[in-house]
Amino acid sequence: MERQHKNKQKRLSGRFKNSNLAQAWLVLVLALVFGTALAAVQVNLGHVIEANKINETLAQIPQLVFGADAARKMDAGNVPVEIIPGTMAIQKDGRNAYYSLFRVDRDGALAGWVIKARGQGYADTIELLIGLDAQAKTITGLFILEQKETPGLGNKIGTVRWRSQFVNRATDRPLVVVKRGSGRPDAIDAVTGATISSRSVTRIVNRTIGDLRGKLMPEKIQFSERRSK
Question: Which residues pair with 125 in a beta bridge?
């Protein structure tokens, strides 16, 4: 009787192990299938996402250099604006670093620059568009091209109200994030409850301007095709 009981336990144990093994394999197979499908979707959508980002960048550039109101008036009046994409290489920490940028011309003359920059935020990478005047002495605009910061907190870095703090700030000194209302010419008020996200954006802006200060000269930039707006 005891032997029969032990044999029954062994059979049940074997079935249990086989069942667990089968379930484990099923999970692995499903993970592989869904992972492959997700990768395929990403590959197929990658070109679409990148094209949308380029279109959004081009749409933002006039506002980042001239301001939203002036850009609208220029567009309504069919004022020609040329946007010329380019790449600039700089030496940093003993190696080459590259910046994608746009020269913006109005009536055939240099009106300003827009620089693409990126860096680590609180949750993930933050990608920016930074507008500068023709001499790169003043920030003329800031746009958050991509971010995945905390909804309701860190993602407020994308609001016009917060970004507008950077407009007309001089580039000859680093900007500093403060809690609220210091009135300093180099101070940026942090988003409430999202100091890290605020500092991340400000750090990217400071680093980019520091890297390019005194180097934004057409002869040092490799330009590609011109685009008109």
Answer: 120
Residues forming beta bridges with residue 170, ordered by sequence position:
138
Q: What's the number of CA atoms in the CB half-sphere (13 Å) around residue 65?
A: 26
Q: Which helix (H) or strand (E) holds 93?
A: none
SS (H, E, C) 36-50: HHHHHHHHHHHHHHH
The pTM of this model reads: 0.78
Mean pLDDT value of segment 29-34: 70
| Per-residue model confidence as pLDDT tens digits over 90-105 | 988 888 889 999 999 9
**Would you say 115 and 97 are in contact if contact means Cβ atoms under 8 Å apart?**
no
Do 140 and 64 meet the contact criterion of CB atoms below 8 Å apart? yes
User: Which parts of 67-194 fold into alpha helices (H)?
Assistant: 68-76, 160-163
For position 103, what pLDDT does the model report?
Answer: 96
Of residues 110, 125, 86, 119, the one with CA closest to residue 209? 119
DSSP letters for 22-91: HHHHHHHHHHHHHHHHHHHHHHHHHHHHHHHHHHHHHHHHHHHHH-HHHHHHHHHTT--EEEEEEEEEEE
Residue type, 164: S
Query: What count of other Cβ atoms lies within 10 Å of the Cβ of residue 76?
Result: 8
